[in-house]
Design a protein that fits this description.
about 220 residues; two-stranded antiparallel sheet; disordered N terminus
Length: about 220
């Protein structure tokens, strides 16, 4: 019989060790976990029925992939196969991270041909779960939960922690205190909680959770 391989257990101890090796545990950088910046999957339309090799990399090489969104998760599991900790799975057509198992090793971020997996601090903060750069009218036709750059989150954020760039909302975590106003105001539900619950409106930004937004 062929040998049976099991995933490494992950968890806090493994995460701490890997974050040390990766340089993610320094005083000025919080411990990080993978976050999928897309909630499309079954919420997103298809341009054609893909029958080729069942990998994201192969699908992306065929006219950019079958998804109606040229920027979102393709849902064929390259990230799940790359993860050695059983921390990421395809759910309803889109990759979802189990942040209790994720160690922050970044293998999934390297494997994703669409680059929709990013590293985010372990913190009760919202995330914009959309990577599309299309204009709102196009997004409305292709994805039920895509950001349409309507600006409601920008106008309602009490800390001016959100701005629009390339037709998608971006959160500046150096200003975000996790109050959740943006989550409540987003009409497409493109801004979601990755973990935790909202903080009071006037809560300060915890310094150990700050990761400077790359723009």
């Amino acid at each position: 019989m062929p040998p049976t391989f099991k995933c490494a257990p992950g968890g806090d101890k493994t995460a701490d060790a890997i974050n040390t090796i990766m340089g993610n545990d320094t005083d000025d950088r919080p411990s990080l976990r993978a976050t999928v910046i897309c909630a499309g999957g079954e919420n997103c339309g298809k341009r054609f029925d893909y029958q080729g090799i069942q990998t994201c990399a192969a699908a992306a090489s065929i006219a950019g992939g079958p998804s109606a969104c040229a920027y979102g998760c393709l849902g064929l599991g390259d990230c799940t196969r790359a993860c050695k900790f059983d921390a990421i799975h395809i759910v309803n057509g889109v990759a979802v991270v189990d942040r209790q198992k994720c160690t922050g090793c970044t293998a999934c971020t390297v494997a994703c041909p669409r680059h929709v997996i990013q590293m985010k601090p372990i913190a009760p903060q919202p995330a914009v779960k959309c990577s599309s750069k299309d204009k709102g009218a196009v997004v409305n036709k292709t994805c039920k939960v895509g950001c349409i750059a309507c600006g409601l989150c920008v106008r309602n954020c009490p800390n001016q922690a959100i701005f629009l760039k390339d037709n998608v909302a971006v959160i500046d975590y150096t200003k975000c205190n996790g109050c959740g106003t943006c989550v409540a105001k987003c009409p497409k539900k493109a801004i979601q909680w990755v973990e935790g619950t909202p903080r009071p409106m006037d809560a300060p930004v915890p310094e150990h959770e700050v990761l400077k937004t790359r723009v």
